[in-house]
Amino acid sequence: MKSEQEKRIQRIVKSAQEQDEYTLFETWHAYVEKHLKVPFRAVVAEYQRGPVRQGDQVTVMGITDMDDTYGTIVAMKHKRGVHELPLCDLKTLNADTQTEELVDDYAVWFANR
Fold it and tell me: Under CATH, to which class is 4-112 assigned?
């Protein structure tokens, strides 16, 4: 039996016109753009190069780009300024349930694509 998360991910994946990786990236990106509520607090969950480090707390301000390697890119405020990171490298902190589920669903899909 599929979990609720698997069902949510499958709904988005199945809505893609094609099942190639780039079309799936575009489908997820459009879905995230439509449903992501910003700003929200997050923690950097993955290793990073540069001024923002794993474990740092940030405030996600909005979506800036879609990259064909890193997926959806977001702008965030950090104590060292404004930076951009892949959404899949973040985990929400005290966000509303919809935002928390969306960011987590996206990260799980991205990691397992």
Answer: mainly beta
